[in-house]
Known about the structure:
The protein is α/β, with parallel strands linked by helices. It is built from 13 helices and 16 strands. It has two domains: 4-173, 2-Layer Sandwich (Endonuclease, Chain A); 194-383, 2-Layer Sandwich (Endonuclease, Chain A), CATH 3.30.870.10. Helix content is 39%, strand content 26%. It has a 16-stranded mixed sheet that branches. Strand 2 (32-37), helix 2 (44-58) and strand 3 form a beta-alpha-beta unit. Helix 6 runs parallel beside helix 7. It is globular and about 60 Å long. It comes from Parasulfuritortus cantonensis. Its EC number is 2.7.8.-. It catalyses: 2 a 1,2-diacyl-sn-glycero-3-phospho-(1'-sn-glycerol) = a cardiolipin + glycerol.
Amino acid sequence: MTRRAGNRVTLLAGGGHFFPDLIAALDRAEREIHLESYIFEPDETGLAVAEALVRAAARGVRVKVLLDGFGARTFPAPLAARLREAGVALMFFRPELGSWRLRMYRLRRMHRKLAVIDARVAYVGGINIIDDANTMPGAGKRHDYAVRVEGPLLADVYPAVRRLWLLVRWSAIGHRPHHSPPLAVAAGPAGDQVAEFLQRDNLRHRREIEEAYLDAIRAARREVLIANAYFLPGRRFRQALVEAARRGVRVTLVLQGRTDHRWFQLVERALYRYFLENGIEIYEFHASELHAKAAVVDGAWATVGSSNIDPFSLLLAREANVVVYERGFAETLHARVCEAMADGAHAIQRREWSHVPWHVRFASWALYGLVRLLMGWLGMARRL
């Protein structure tokens, strides 16, 4: 992990801000585009992004798109053919080729959402290539965040996307392919923010994102605010939150109220009583689908990225977050999360949770135990 000064990191709240900014950057591209996404839906937004990629390729820009083989398993063949015919290089990370079997390597997905244009601007966050309105019936627009990054942090982001592209290309072809040389990174000062680019993979960055969270929580003196779509922390993470609350830190969790993964929500709720009894506030967001992976600590440390706080993100998937050490950015993110809470979240009261029917609580704990058993079967139970 390397902190770099001189960055300009801009918060993009929701697809309404993110996609116009991304498409404008794609249309300004002159030499190279890298785009990574877990999901790429052929809805109105997805097609608009695809057309921007086609336009870039027509200008002679090298366009490289990497999608996850499970998250984008329904990516339509006609759209893939259109992209490739236009000159877009399209690959899938660990494509699903057969029936699903419970093997660890098939759970190691590429969950990152990254874009780098001309090695001069990058986008990092939790927003897939999918319209905010393309969500579960009856829900409002999906709530999520991304950031635009300019400055010295590109020296970390660009090699990361290039390295993964080459790795997947090598594994797909079976030998080391010919590839274009890297661009010179536009890593000169672009602002006054100190920031870090964090990854999670299975080699050099296995615990980088989790450790950054733990360091910030353990150093907290006033407030920890976490908005996370899938929140099932391990023992060390739970203890860090409880210890912070015991020393007087206000710890607030903003979690999904609406979800298309009902079983996961039951597992997550198994921990509610423990958190509530230890002074941690819990809010469930019901206005729409909460897809955020963001946090603010003491108004000076903030992170936005793709990593949930669950075993999938922290132990198995490839993830990417940006941490910003600057009060202006942290306060902006804090304000956006608090606005969402005011508009569409309600507090879970300790007395309210104590009246939840016994069979619901039993189901929560049974599913929680099943997750622990699964992680143990994968040889990872010590981390839960």
